[in-house]
Amino acid sequence: MSWKLTVALTGVLCALVAWARSADVEGGTAMWDLSRAGGFTAYVLAWAAVFTGVGVDTRFHPGVVSQTVLYEAHRMLATLVPGFALVHAFALLLDPWVGFSVWEVLVPFVAPFERWWTGLGVLALWAFVAVLVSTWGAGLIPFKVWRLLHYATYLVFALGLLHAIMTGSDTEHWPTHLLYSATVGALLGAVFVRLIANRWIAENRKAPGYH
Amino acid sequence: MPGHKNPFRREKRPAVTVLAAASSVVLFLATWGVVWASNREVGAGDDGGPPPPTATFTAAASASPGDSPGATATPTRSSRAS
Fold it and tell me: Mind listing the pLDDT tens digit for each residue in B15-37?
């Protein structure tokens, strides 16, 4: 259901973008605004997917949320990321000022706007899709390969963040600073807890009386 | 690896799936609203009027007169108003 829902949502939101373009909502700035909204949403979803992924891997949830719910949230949040990244790209395609082509939106490092930093965003999208595909086919590839690809998500998230910082026109604003600082701080904290918690679990599992 | 069991078979929780999707749409629309409002704030100026239509991106308009026909300026981040 998650993929069908994501495809349907992406279609509806792209239709909204196309409508905003044809109706000339906001007097010409709608495409850039919708692209920013799509980019921010994709970033937050990517962060939430990685964050909940660390939670799933930590296997230590003191009464907050069950492992199953956390895993379902992780899976769905990750599935939604490419959808909103496509909305972000679709709005750029229709932006009368930027003038991206389909080729420039889908192929890294060929865009006319901030070529290298925009290219990182395209690269991050494709890498994220690769991680999702590897999870679909997790039964067909060796576990170690899947795990390596999944760990690469940290790098993919960092690429997306770099893209956001270097190409976003909101980077200089304090709410954006707050968002990036809070998300990166929370993620680093979660990774730290995961390392500590898993070591603690491993050590106590060996201890007498541990169930 | 034929016969290898997918380790991610899961118990389905459609409520979580729907909740995550609905939250993402709310987040998207709310962000659009905030961005739209911030545009009006920046573009309004002292007279309280609407933002200028070209506030978003002005690089194309800034191409120098000597440029060959069809040439476009390379847009930069600093050329955009927030």
Answer: 889 999 999 999 999 999 998 88
pTM value > 0.90: no
A162 occurs within a structural domain: yes
- Number of Cβ within 10 Å of residue A171's Cβ equals 14
Domain range holding A198? 2-204
**Within-domain flag for A209:** no
A195 part of a folded domain: yes
The interface residues of chain B toward chain A in range 4-43, judged by CB-CB distance below 8 A, are 4-8, 10-14, 16-18, 20-21, 24-25, 27-29, 31-32, 35-36, 38-39
Tell me the pLDDT tens digit for each residue of A58-102.
876 666 677 888 888 999 999 999 999 999 999 999 988 887 899
Q: Which amino acid is at A35?
A: S
Spacing of C-alpha A59 from chain mean position: 22
Instruction: Flag if B82 and A170 touch (Cβ within 8 Å).
Output: yes
